[in-house]
């Protein structure tokens, strides 16, 4: 998340693309589908050799796939002549649960989105299991979505109603249209919030997909699409963030101008056809009335809610009595909401999955441990000081070994498996500093440290598809770590920790004794929550309104679910 104060100036419009193609060719189906398949087929031989060599603890893709193949004998891999005869000597391997505890519907075509069912091979299995009730609600959401999907009869009916310029109360199919704002991390946490909001309201989530997100993700719901067909959509200019703020049906403005009120006795016929919910960080107190129960009851009348957010607003939904009970049933463990819904919704497209699996196999699979370091610099920082600080965090938290500055004779390093550090950052300075440190000096533990950084894009270019593909791949690669160090206030890090089910070490100095802080949960922070107690009708600090809410460790103005 960028701007800390409200009413900041709009960011400059996206730069026109200089390179022409903007990476669109990479998203082409042929490349995207074929490549990972080839990788898998070829690697099956290495698999068996890995198993035979006794490298049981390796998390290599090959090994994992062989385990699954051996256990399920499904999609039998091609032969590897020299090893094939010994396969039956292998002890039985645990089956990988490719549906993630029932989170994922089995009704997808596997090849169209390899990451969906292969993710389980890469992630450590999660002990945050989805509740049976959540699974039931996801399945019924999926059938509702299919019934109401774009171009169905019911969808057309709802569109007709939108064209009529009036709402006449809820229809059979009602929608939340998510609109994008800011970087990929912001988009993913807000999209997840919008999905949960739709689920709670039995509404259908459609996505106004920006050009720079096309080809990034697979469809999350089986046999249907969540993409809003914007060509035929009666409301135009959804994508112009700053112009759309002035939309006449912006909910906050309608409240402010007293055109709409929650204690309304107005007939349904005078309701507008839709409402625009302006839920980005720089909204005002009227927009934030969205988080009150009376307002939610009014919003139920509208078949179309257009919602723009860059926030993780899930914590505030717990303060709306209407949703509270349902939320507790859905998520007996409140702190795994993003972890579960993120894994449910976001599946890298085959092209992005190619980036992820190639990089993982080349640099990370063979390590005995993986540490992810997400370094996001906001504002001016002294590079040398900040680099020392980050390294200090890793050393004092025992995530990395110290170096031996005495330069003693090299120890016997034969057959030592490296520890891998994956650095993600827009620049390469931090990576170089760390790599040089372990190149120039031995470690005190005898460990060998490999330091890797997939890209250094130098600047944020959210409007470019190829840039976003790398961003997603890196978020995902970070999530494959055993431990994570993340930058404060960064939604990029939030998504990685959520995917991975990891409590990150935050680059926040909690006190004089500790250099950085081991976060209590893996949940994202809601950076800019409302500050109004709807029940008491007065200003309040929301963190004090429920025992499980608190101020974020990395951004005290924000609120977060702590248990
Ligand atoms: N490839 C890559 N891109 C990055 C990295 N850090 C930031 N970016 C880019 O910058 C964007 C940052 O926006 P978000 O993903 O929303 O994350 P954030 O840290 O909350 O950033 P802001 O909202 O801009 O403050 C990402 O989506 C990427 O496009 C990185 O380590 N690797
Ligand atoms: C696979 O292995 C079996 C038994 O080892 C052998 O008979 C067969 O020809 C092999 N197939 C291929 C495609 O190599
Ligand atoms: C819905 O409307 C679209 C566009 O007008 C049309 O192509 C489609 O056939 C309609 N669907 C049904 C089921 O009527
Ligand atoms: C709805 O409003 C638009 C824009 O104000 C107008 O062009 C259109 O004719 C209206 N439609 C109906 C059915 O009144
Ligand atoms: C208005 O909509 C509500 C549902 O929100 C419905 O119960 C009510 O009957 C409608 N009133 C009229 C006058 O159509
Ligand atoms: C180094 O380690 C290897 C394997 O652990 C061992 O075979 C070899 O004897 C060791 N060499 C020395 C000099 O200690």
From TrEMBL:
GO molecular function, one term: galactoside 2-alpha-L-fucosyltransferase activity
Basic and acidic residues composition-biased segments: 1-20
Segments crossing the lipid bilayer: 37-55
Record carries keyword Transferase: yes
UniProt main location, coarse: Golgi
Region named Disordered: 1-24
Domain of life, per lineage: Eukaryota
A single GO cellular-component term on record: Golgi cisterna membrane
GO terms under biological process: cell wall biogenesis; cell wall organization; xyloglucan biosynthetic process
Subcellular location: Golgi apparatus, Golgi stack membrane
Assigned keywords, A-Z: Cell wall biogenesis/degradation, Glycoprotein, Glycosyltransferase, Golgi apparatus, Membrane, Transferase, Transmembrane, Transmembrane helix
EC number: 2.4.1.-
Protein's membrane topology: Single-pass type II membrane protein
Function: May be involved in cell wall biosynthesis.
Similarity remark: Belongs to the glycosyltransferase 37 family.
Name recorded for this polypeptide: Fucosyltransferase
Organism: Canna indica (Indian-shot)
């Amino acid at each position: 998340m960028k701007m800390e104060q409200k009413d900041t100036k709009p960011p400059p419009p996206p730069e026109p693309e200089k390179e022409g193609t903007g990476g669109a060719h990479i998203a082409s189906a042929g490349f995207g589908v074929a490549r990972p398949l080839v990788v898998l087929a070829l690697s099956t031989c290495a698999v068996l050799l890995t198993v035979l060599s006794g490298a049981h603890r390796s998390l290599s893709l090959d090994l994992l796939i062989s385990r699954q193949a051996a256990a399920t004998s499904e999609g039998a891999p091609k032969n590897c002549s020299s090893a094939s005869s010994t396969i039956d000597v292998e002890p039985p391997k645990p089956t990988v649960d490719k549906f993630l505890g029932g989170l994922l519907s089995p009704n997808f075509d596997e090849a169209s989105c390899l990451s969906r069912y292969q993710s389980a091979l890469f992630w450590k299995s999660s002990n945050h299991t989805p509740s049976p009730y959540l699974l039931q609600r996801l399945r019924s959401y999926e059938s509702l979505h299919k019934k109401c999907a774009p171009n169905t009869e019911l969808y057309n009916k709802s569109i007709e109603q939108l064209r009529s310029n009036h709402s006449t109360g809820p229809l059979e199919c009602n929608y939340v249209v998510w609109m994008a704002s800011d970087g990929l991390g912001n988009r993913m946490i807000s999209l997840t919030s919008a999905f949960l909001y739709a689920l709670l309201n039995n509404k259908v989530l459609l996505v106004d997909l920006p050009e720079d997100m096309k080809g990034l993700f697979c469809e999350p719901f089986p046999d249907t699409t969540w993409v809003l067909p914007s060509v035929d959509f009666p409301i135009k200019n959804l994508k112009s963030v700053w112009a759309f703020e002035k939309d006449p049906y912006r909910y906050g403005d309608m409240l402010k101008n007293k055109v709409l009120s929650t204690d309304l006795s107005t007939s349904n016929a005078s309701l507008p056809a839709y409402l625009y919910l302006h839920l980005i960080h720089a909204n005002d107190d009227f927009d934030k009335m969205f988080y009150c129960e009376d307002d939610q009851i009014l919003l139920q009348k509208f078949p179309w809610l257009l919602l723009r957010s860059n926030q993780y607003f899930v914590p505030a939904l717990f303060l709306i009595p209407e949703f509270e009970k349902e939320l507790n049933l859905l998520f007996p463990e409140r702190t795994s909401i993003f972890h579960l819904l993120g894994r449910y919704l976001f599946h890298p497209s085959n092209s992005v999955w190619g980036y992820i699996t190639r990089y993982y196999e080349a640099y990370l699979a063979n390590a005995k441990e993986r540490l992810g370091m997400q370094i996001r610099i906001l504002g001016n920082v002294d590079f040398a000081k900040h680099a020392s600080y980050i390294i200090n965090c890793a050393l004092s938290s025992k995530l990395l070994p110290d170096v031996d500055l005495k330069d003693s004779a090299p120890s016997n390093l034969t057959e030592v498996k490296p520890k891998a550090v994956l650095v993600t950052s827009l620049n390469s300075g931090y990576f170089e500093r760390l790599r040089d440190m372990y190149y120039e000096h031995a470690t005190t533990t005898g460990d060998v440290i490999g330091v890797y950084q997939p890209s250094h894009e130098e600047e944020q270019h959210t409007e470019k598809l190829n840039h976003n593909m790398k961003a997603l791949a890196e978020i995902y690669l970070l999530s494959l770590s055993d431990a994570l160090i993340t930058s404060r206030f960064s939604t990029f890090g939030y998504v990685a920790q959520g995917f991975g089910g990891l409590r990150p070490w935050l680059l926040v100095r909690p006190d004089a004794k500790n250099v950085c802080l081991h976060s209590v949960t893996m949940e994202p922070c809601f950076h800019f929550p409302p500050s109004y107690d709807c029940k008491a009708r007065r200003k309040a600090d929301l963190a004090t309104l429920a025992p499980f809410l608190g101020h974020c460790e990395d951004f005290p103005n924000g609120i977060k679910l702590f248990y």
